[in-house]
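Researcher: Sequence of Acyl-CoA thioesterase follows. Predict its structure.
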Amino acid sequence: MEHSPTPVPARIPSKRRILDQSQKRETMYKTTITPRFNETDAVGHINNTKFPAWFEAARRDFFAEFDPDLATDPWTLLVVRYELNFLKEVNWVPEVTIHTSISRLGRTSVTLHEELYQEGELCVVSEVTYVNVDPRTRRPEAVPNPVREKLSAHLSTKRNEYNQEGASDA
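Model: Prediction complete. Tokens:
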């Protein structure tokens, strides 16, 4: 009796587009991180749990836009959405560079687009949305005008993952 191989279905693209890496965005901040051996896992690459901390470290200059002293009392930025897409393994020996850009500036929120490169190759893409809150009430409040002006100058005009222009809704 002869068996024919079962056909493998073609990969069906997701209806919801993941983060678009087709064109380089304007980089507002650039940070270099040296991976440590203890950040690797049993597979030999950097463990996926390490990337959120690396991306957060790369946001230091962004946080300084809201408070140049980086004071945490009161802290007014809260994460309301965070997405990571892993495109390629990251190893512990070569340094990585994180490019951060502003992809959306709302009345009370800011979305950052972050790209992690190792040896010139795009490996991980992140998008994180912060909402600015009143320190007393913890309710959303408008991004301060001086911060808005500085961030607006770097707002990407490239379409984001939801196929919307990277523009302000203010």
